[in-house]
Amino acid sequence: MNQPVLDVRGVSKRFPGVLALDDVSLTVAPGEVHALVGENGAGKSTLIKILTGVYRPDAGDVHYRGEPVAFGRPLDAQAAGISTIYQEVNLVPLMSVARNLFLGREPRGRFGLIDLARMNREAAEVLAGYGIDVDVRLPLRSLGLGAQQMVALARAVAIDARVVIMDEPTSSLEPREVDTLFRVVRELSGRGIAIVYVSHRLDELYQLCDRVTVLRDGRRVHTGELAGLDRLGLISLMLGRDAAEVRRDGLTGFSAHDAGDVEPILRVRDLSRAHQLHGISFDVRPGEVTGLGGLLGSGRSETAKAVVGALGADGEVTMAGQRLTRRSPAAAIRAGMAMLPEDRKAEGIVPGLSVRENIVLAAMPTLSRFGVVSRAKQDRIVETFMKRLRIKAASPEQKVSELSGGNQQKVLLARWLCLHPRLLLLDEPTRGIDVGAKAEVQALIDELAADGLAVVLISSDLEELVEGADRIVVLRAGAVVGELAGDDVTEDNIMTALAQEPAHD
Amino acid sequence: MTQTLVQKSPHPVPVEREHRRERLAALAQRHGALAVLTLAVLVSSVVFPSFPTAENANGIAIQSSFLAIIALGMTFVIITGGIDLSVGSVFALGGVLAAYASQWGPAPALLLPLAVCGAIGLLQGVLIAYTGMAPFIVTLAGLLGARGLLLAITEEGANTYLVPKDSAFLELGQGTLLGVGYPVYLAVLLFGLGGLLLQRTRYGQAVFAVGGSPDAAALMGLPVARIRVLTYLLSGMLAGFAGVLNASRLSSGVTILGVGLELDAIAAVVIGGTLLIGGAGTVSGTLCGVLLLGVIQNVINQIGSLNSSYQSVVSGGFLIVVVVVQTYLSRRRHLR
Ligand SMILES: Nc1ncnc2c1ncn2[C@@H]1O[C@H](COP(=O)(O)OP(=O)(O)OP(=O)(O)O)[C@@H](O)[C@H]1O
Ligand SMILES: [Mg+2]
Q1: Minimal CA–CA distance to A271: which of A263, A262, A261, A283?
Q2: Which ligand has the minimum distance to the alpha carbon of residue A49?
Q3: What is the pLDDT of residues B280-311, one digit of tens each?
Q4: Rounded to 5 degrees, what angle do the CA atoms A313, A318, A323 make?
């Protein structure tokens, strides 16, 4: 191997209550795509933040291009040529797309003033290369999550970097955008830029990466060529269980149910919203997982939001025989619906509150008696879910903002599960969750369905959708283009349904 | 295995529509104050014949110029997600220092207040940016501190410093060009520069980023602390400069001035469409907000029979309407 561009030696980092990194080393050569994997809370993001000057290591040091470095701030790391896409989209939602892209390095013209025309033009050009065709003067938040992530990618790559670090860059991308991302990664690596790539999607790693470093509980347990390691081997390294055990447990935790002719608990009729949803109708039966399939912009998330009243729409929603007239999220919860939203950062987690408080937040009314909340009941619920979902936290009282990204997601999932809803809508429930816990979440969904809960599942992961759902409603451009059930639920059939033209317009 | 979908989704029409609405909302946010101001001026002109006169307009402009300069600094502060409660006291302190220093000539009368008020702003900025104390608390202390300093140098207000009658310093606040007072020109000039600073410089972009999402700004490599310090420095200096102008106009440093002025400035900024939570705003909106407050005061004076305290009632009413509309607009956009 040639001279590494990045060489991390024996780095340790302790947070109150947890040793997040314990003597971890990592070397990355120019042009190499290096996978960094591990369970939620294994320390991946912490290692990245040490590389980029967000945290200082307690021990060990970082060598960059042969020199020891200690970046005090992200600014310094960036200036030195280490560019990062962080796990959560870290851009400024209210500022325009172009301004986000160029923030801190805007093109300047006369008198040192920013040349707006040039900035907007260049931004449009750059983004077009990423398949993003938008009015770059619009605020960033008017873009979908995936497109925002692409802007972050474009921004990171545009900075003249020698090392690009990507912390779960694909977690909110559509397949088409993932392709673009892959293309960019290969191009970068071809130019001799080193890439550190974090992802829970193993397929991606095998498609992209040369070598892999596995972290477990803050320690490095393996580094080596990826090609020589099969999926099972990789998973067992991550989980610390042996391959045979992993194989026995299976990789997804789903099984089929047969709800037969049970009365639907949710009837959606003619759900419409100008230019987004066109007369969407479907039924959801208790004891069954109903999947919503489709591409970006097909209206999956919008449909779910409209059902729970978080998005205004015309049409009828009947829950357990009761027609919901004044639709609002509160009314939906009262009617027994619970929804896990897609954009968890904006719509879910309360960063300042503890893990316990975040979990029981929505269940408060049902846990309280005369306004007094039973602490014992809370503790029981919290303990159950923390164990079940393997939420890694120092204690239930730890602030949720201090948890790793994947563990924050699990906390949110726990919040909606402990409501004991009759209908659960899950928008991308396993995004950002590691393989072990993913199977656990899937098994839990399965178990809940077996207990008679009705589940609506939205997932961009076709494999998850096909294995998880007993019935799939396929959406395209805001209209239902097909419904698959039983043995018809296959990836091929979904693709065929997607290829059809919608009936309207 | 996860299959890759290569098929393109048809270009969604809804996006267009969404964007138009987004733009409309932004437009309302940006130009709402201008629309209300125009309306207020039109109605007042029709109802009060004495309103649409050059003399009256001039009066409103002069009256508003001091608040405008203060509110300009406040706009920057609020966009970074902060607040500066000290500006009223700093304004008064600037005036008294100017009057005091005018005995040595116009240059000290200008520079001493700017230096002292700038130092107060700088200190506040450093405390806020580097110790993580809440801007509300730090600048509240600044409000009390500056007021205390003021009382100390005027011996509890017993001393009123007068600007020497023949001082060239008086020209600054009392001189006119084409019948319009210098302070008006200065305010307009400062707003022009402020607009450029906010929209067309890296500092200005960083101000938006720091207010819109401080964590993201830091991760994107912006010097967040330095931006904050600079912003409070700017606010302190602008408030001091407004005090200087006012002292020149009144020929003296008046101790009791500026009480509650910070609230007027905040009101003007918010009415002008700047989000109180930070991250969005314009200086032109602030100018409209200041003028609107000026027109309201003027109209209430025109009515004559009304107690001038009604001004606060009407301004307060406006404020509530603006904030409600703001909340509504941003909620709608959020729920998309
Ligand atoms: N600011 C913090 N304060 C306290 N503990 C923290 C903080 N940041 C991270 N931790 C803890 O350090 C450990 C490692 O977290 P890290 O974010 O590095 O995990 P990760 O490997 O990125 O996981 P994921 O796949 O979920 O993103 C976790 O136990 C987490 O709770
Ligand atoms: Mg992470």
Answers
A1: A283
A2: 1
A3: 889 998 999 899 888 888 887 777 666 667 77
A4: 90
Cβ proximity of A59 and A10 under 8 Å? yes
Interacting residues of A358 by C-beta distance below 8 A, sequence separation 6+: A349, A350, A400, A411, A412, A415
**Residue (of B290, B249, B295, B283) closest to B109 by Cα position:** B249
- DSSP summary character for residue A399: B
Angle at A184 between CA A179 and CA A189, to 5 degrees: 125
ipTM for the whole predicted complex goes beyond 0.85: no
Question: What are residue A342's phi and psi, to 5 degrees?
Answer: -75, -45
**Interface with B, mutate which of A95, A181, A305, A438 (most B CBs under 10 A):** A95
Nearest of B239, B306, B211 to residue B89 by alpha carbon: B239
In the block, tokens 């759902």 appear at A469
- Structural domains in chain A, CATH included, are 6-229 (3.40.50.300), 266-499 (3.40.50.300)
Compare all CA atoms of chain A with the CA of B334 and give the residue at the minimum distance.
A141
Any residues with CB less than 8 A from the CB of A343 and at least 6 apart, and which? A145
Structure tokens given for B281: 């705003």
Which residues are within 8 A (CB) of A70 and not within 5 positions of it... i.e. 6 or more apart? A53, A56, A61, A62
Q: How far apart are CA A145 and CA B318, in angstroms?
A: 36
Check: CB of residue A278 under 8 Å from CB of residue A298.
no
Please tell me whether residue A167 adopts helix, strand or coil conformation.
strand
The answer to whether A103 contacts B17, with C-beta atoms less than 8 Å apart, is no
Q: Which domains does chain B have, with CATH numbers?
A: 60-325 (1.10.3470)
SS3 B176: strand
In SS3 terms, A267-282 reads as EEEEEEECCCEEEEEE
**Whole-number Å distance between alpha carbons of B193 and B191:** 5
Taking only Cα atoms into account, the Rg of chain B, rounded to an integer number of angstroms, comes to: 22
Residues of A in Cβ contact (< 8 Å) with B14? 274-276, 297, 478
Q: Which tens digits make up the pLDDT trace of B196-249?
A: 999 999 899 999 999 988 888 888 878 889 999 999 999 999 999 999 999 988
For residue A392, the tally of other CB atoms under 10 A from its CB is 20
